[in-house]
Each structure stands twice: as structure tokens, then as C-alpha cells.
Amino acid sequence: MGYSFDWVDAFADRPFGGNGCVVVHDAGDLPVDRRLALVRETSLSECAFLVPSQSADFGVRYYLANREILMAGHPTVATVVSLLSRGLVTLRDGRADFTLEVGAGVLPIEVRAPAGAAPLVTMTQPRPQFGARHDPAAIAAIYGLEAGDILGAPRTVSTGTGFCITVLRDKAALRRAVLDSDALAAYLDRGAADFFEPFLVTLGGETDRGDVFSRLLLPPPLPAEDPFTGSATGCMAAYLWAEGLIERPRFVAEQGHWLGRPGRAEVEVIGPRDDISGVRVGGHGHVLMTGRLNL
Fold first, then answer.
1. Domains, the chain
2. pLDDT tens digits, residue range 27-73?
């Protein structure tokens, strides 16, 4: 069977930036094993599959190489950019507002393209759920770091997918971080972990436009490092605001520069530090390839 697709670089305004995602259209009848196989074939961290929805304007599901992921940021941006490029979403006066149902629920989507600029796609991630705090020494050991490399206590935060937000003291520590997949698996297997992966962040951007810089190191069969992680960025924003580590609720997040795939997101935490109701994460996207899958 044939399925139309777009390969979109999300959280980037040029080719080969940000994080790539294949968006497959009219994929409601595509079996899960074929979806997983496609992710492995592309060597991307995730692919998106548009499906029917009873509760939103569009439905989509996201998959890693080995399982479904209920919420993911860069596939959300990629999906919207693909819909725009195919004329399935129309801008009126440079804007569009609609809903997108993902595995974790319905996301409000806003698209803005002032004065002919490239569209900025913004998702509103739901109220963050704050989970367990984790021993800095235990999380540091997963990356060959010391407890002193970590500021405060790492904590699980979820806006649909849980990440252990871990703030490192400086970029030197961030560069030294090397994932020990066995140590991560052992920590997760102990049953104390309520997260998908630790998300490592430093205060201060990689460029003068950024306010924070992050890395997400991944175990097999996933790619070794994610170029840009939109869902974790939302969780990270909620953590930084709640912990008083940022002065303003609006900031620019950067990721992927050390991989040669610079990515950028405009982020806004909604609500006071002690009652965060959601997180807005926005980025651009570039359609790199368009074609048809023969499956």
C-alpha cells in the first residue's frame, strides 16, 4: 500500500537543522509493526502517523523505534508544518488555530506567520505533573559525572511524557556527559523511576539568542542523541520556573548545536511558579523531502 509522507526538520528554519521527523498521512490503517519498522528504517528518533480523530481537528500518533510515545514535541511541530505545506491547514491573515489529538490528549495549536514570515508553530502542552525528586549522585553516575556537577535535585516532570530534568552547573559538565545505557536501564528497572529519560540542561544558550542549552542522550535502539526535544523542553521550562532558576517565564531554548543540527524553541510557562497551568513551546519547520511510501 502507498502512503504520502513529508520529512520535516522541526525546530529549525533551514534544511538539516533541528530534529527530523517523517510525517505519514492517512495512516489509520497502517499496522503498528509497520510504523515501528519505518522508524527503524529512517534511523530517526520518532515518526508521526496521521490518524482519524473523534475529539480534535486532526489526530496523530508518535512512535519510537520500539514503542509508541504519547507526547512528543518535534513530531508535533513537524506534523503541523506538513499539514500547512499540503494546504490541509489554511492561514487567514497570517494565522490559524486548531486542535491536534496525540496519544496524551488534545493539544491546542497556534500558527502565526506575520508579514509573510515563516510560520511559527506553537503547541500548548498541558499542566505539568511534578513527580519524584532523584538523588543527584544516582543520576550523575548514569553519565559519568559527579553529584557536584548537578544543581539542586533532579526531578521528574511530565506534560504527557515524563523526563527527569537535571540542571548541570556548566557546559563543561554537559560536554563530559556520556550515557551508560546499562546504568540507566538498571536505574529504571529498580522501579523508583517515573520518567522516560533524564534531560540535561544548562543555564545560558549556545548562541547569544538562547537562554538555556540542553542534551538528551538516548540508549539503543534509538539514535545516540536527540537533536531537539520539544516535549522535554516543556517539562524543563516548568521545572526551571517552579524552582526559581529563571527570572522570566518566556525564554529561548537551544539544543542540537554540538551535533551540527542547531534547534531553537520559543518557550512560555503559563501561570505563577506555584500553579503552572501549561507550557507553550513554539518552533519553525522545514519540509526537506516529500514522497510516497510503498509498504
1. 2-125+284-294 (3.10.310.10), 129-280 (3.10.310.10)
2. 999 999 999 999 999 999 999 999 999 999 999 999 999 999 999 99
